[in-house]
Amino acid sequence: YLVKVRHLIYLLTVALVLHAAQLVTTYSFKNCNTAHSENKTFICHRRREENVSAIVSDLPSSAINLRICFNYIEHIPNQSFTHLPNLTQLSLDQNNISTLDERAFQNLQQLQMLNLTLNSISHLEPLLFQDLHNLRHLALAQNKIKVLPGHIFSTTLKLKMLILEENYLFDFSQIVSSVSHLQSLTTIKLSLNKLTSLEHSNASLPRSLSNLYVRRNNLSSLGCRQSFLSHLQYLDLSFNPRLSTDAFQGVDLAQLNHLSLQATNVNIIHFLNISNISANSVDFSGTGLNNDSRLEEFCKVLGRKVDNVTNLTLKSNGIHRLSSTSLQYCPKYIEKLDLIKVFEAEHNNLKQLEFCRGQRPFKNLKYLSYRYNYILIVEDYAFHPTPNLVNLSLNINRIAWFGRNALHGLTKLKNLRLDNNLLTDLYRETFQNLLNLETLNLASNRISVIFNNTFKSLRNLKTLDLGDNKITHIEKQGLHGLASLSKLFLNDNNLKEIDTSLYYAFSDKLKVLSLESNLVRFLSRTTSSPFINLSQLTELNLGRQQPFGLTLLPRNFFRGLHSLKSLHLTNNHISHLAPDAFDDLTELDFLNLEYCCVGGVQLQSGVFKNLRNLTRLIVENMGLQNFSNKVFGNLTKLQSLQLNRNVMHSIDVDTLESLKNLKYMDIRGVPLTCNCENSLLQNWTINNPSVQVVYLLDHPCQDSTKDRFYNFPTNVCYVDLGQFLCFTTAAVIFLFTVVPIVFVKLYWTLKYSYFVFRAWFSEQWRRLRDEEENCVYDAFISYNFSDEQWVFEQLVPNLEGNGSSFKLCLHHRDFEVGRNIVDNIVSAVYSSRKTICVVSRNFLQSEWCSLEIQLASYRLFDEHRDVLLLVFLESITERQMSYYHRMRKVMLKKTYLQWPGSDCTDPAQAQKLFWSQLRRAMKANSQCETESGDSPHNRAQHSESEMSDDTQYLLP
């Protein structure tokens, strides 16, 4: 019964999953996933779905952030998100959306950010955003919008940022009309549209607007009132090649903090003469200042307009060379030459940095950038005029020769970028003055050897990036002096071994070490740990060793790393992981073993036994064949488990239940079989509200791609087969043992019960009970046909004749013709006051006689009525009677009569007494009357003195 109930519950659960997935208690979703247990942030990425409702229908109402991207959605119908009233951020970017119904965003009153970038939207319904009363950020970039409906933003009064870049908008006046009432709007991005002018009607831009981006349009004039742009702080008009200087005639730009005119037709010198803008607010990048003569003229204009220059940006001007006289006519006081944030010489054609003798120093210069040039040579003392530099960026050039004294005097430098150049050698003299350097980036060069004492002076260096070089060797004292180093990147080099002697100088401070993509390989399991002194290391990356990977992980390889939090061993083709491989990593929080092993892997029992603080484990595509408690059972703090793309066919549920803090599990690509072996796993995944199983509702069955794992039938799986066979076998044995006994002992009892029930069922029982109260016969005679002569010659004449006048029921005379014989017997027994059984050996062997005595004896014992008389025609031994249990029971309880045979001394007298006793017995203890009305109590009573000692009868 319980099994059936359980099956019923299971079927109901499956039905709910199929028809209303959101009602399933599983913390898994068909097309979305989240790494947060609170069901707040969801990402629905590359699901190839066309129907947005199919993607979001099973998401909970608690969702706050939702991103649906890279799908095939073309249409957003009405009320698509009404069940998600708590959304504050909704991103529908990079789909193929072309139409949105008017009520698509109904009920999203809490929404603050809506992103519809990179779609194919060409038309917006006027009431599309009417429910978005709290919207603050709206992105409609990279669509096909030509016109904004006049009242589309009528209810979005809290909108702060509107992004309309890369559309087909051409009427600026219409844009102004649609946003003029938005008093919270601060930013409008209209770049990459079809605007030809900023001409507008009587409407004005909101006074709250401070940032306007109109780059890469077709502007030829501004066409706006003098005060139209007076409240702006940031204006980008770059890359409008038709925009000329005359367009700014009479326009108030005094409040601007930043104006970009790159790649326009504006003569920057003439512009400065006619405009009221502060020169410090102009970005001079890409304004044609590409030679000394133009720079000199430019500086003269600056000198007339301002007393000093605080910000000067000259990037993308095509400058080939900066001489000592290039900026000599600029204002005397240049307070800040900021070449990273403000003054940048990036994206030019500089090829060499020379030592400028006699150049007056720029003592206030803190940030200098020469990125994105063609610099090949940096001469000695090239930065002598900038002694107070803090940040220097020389990256993304072609520097092949770097003077040993090029950085001389930069004692305050903290950040130096030399990455993405062609450097081959490093010298001690190069860095000896950089006493305060904290970050040194030398990645992506051609360095092959680190010589002794190269970084000896860099005692304050915290981060050293030597990644993506060709380093094959580090001399014994190559890293000597790096006492404060906390991050060292040696990834993508040609190192073949990890020597602990290299790191002794900074072992107490190093926290991050990357050795990814080198040539490290081990052939012996007994190699000593190279990290024995790195007791403070928190992050270690050993992934992707080339060309064959580590192949072997030595025993105790990670000894000493007691503080390690993160370990990467990805793509290493390790053939064996020793049981004690991670024993020292007691503080490990994140372990990535993705693609780390070769073929099918059998992880050793206890390999993770000490990782009790591990919260995230990636074992993707390791070839795992099993998921056992002996391997994973100790990970009691594990929250995220990625098992995807392994070869196991089942996952042990007991092991999963031991992971008490598990919140996220990825089993995509695991070929789980849909059979009874995984029935418990199916039940666990769909009924565990605390663990998110990624895309569970889309997980296929290994043996049938049409079926899904979460709903394959498990009806027969809940019965234990062994238990079932045990009980079945026991039942069969019991039946074969008990049935024969029951047959022998209770055959007639059961048969009688059946007959009585059948009589009751056919509504004859009531009639029989009525007949009992008004008996038809005085006695029913039960006898065998072989004793028929005695019955008719002796019994009938003495009971029905000779003045006795008893009415007897006899088979051949009184049974109803055509009626079932069993019904006749039942009717005869219950319509007679007594049943007289004429017992002989033939009687005992007769089935019908046995039935008749059984029926009579049931009346005797069950109804407590004296209705049975036994008459023995011949002497029967105790042994012969032992088989007839019911008859022996009657004989022990009631008087029975023995017919006197010829061996009596006086047969005539004995027979006379026999008939007298039989008549008397027939008259005794009867409550019913015969149809003649002759009650037994009215008949003559025989005196007990008629009995004599010669009469053969037995008492109980």
TrEMBL record:
UniProt topology in membrane: Single-pass type I membrane protein
Gene3D superfamilies xrefs: Ribonuclease Inhibitor, Toll/interleukin-1 receptor homology (TIR) domain
Positions of transmembrane segments: 721-748
GO biological processes: inflammatory response; innate immune response; toll-like receptor signaling pathway
InterPro entries (UniProt xref): Leu-rich_rpt, Leu-rich_rpt_typical-subtyp, LRR_dom_sf, TIR_dom, Toll_tir_struct_dom_sf
Chain spans, region Disordered: 926-956
Domain TIR: 775-922
Keyword Membrane: yes
UniProt GO molecular function: signaling receptor activity
Keywords: Glycoprotein, Immunity, Inflammatory response, Innate immunity, Leucine-rich repeat, Membrane, Receptor, Repeat, Signal, Transmembrane, Transmembrane helix
Subcellular location: Membrane
Any Gene Ontology CC annotation: plasma membrane
Source organism superkingdom: Eukaryota
Record field: compositional bias (Basic and acidic residues): 934-945
Annotated signal peptide: 1-26
Pfam families given in the database record: LRR_8, TIR
The family this protein is said to belong to: Belongs to the Toll-like receptor family.
Name of protein: Toll-like receptor 21
Organism: Neogobius melanostomus (round goby)
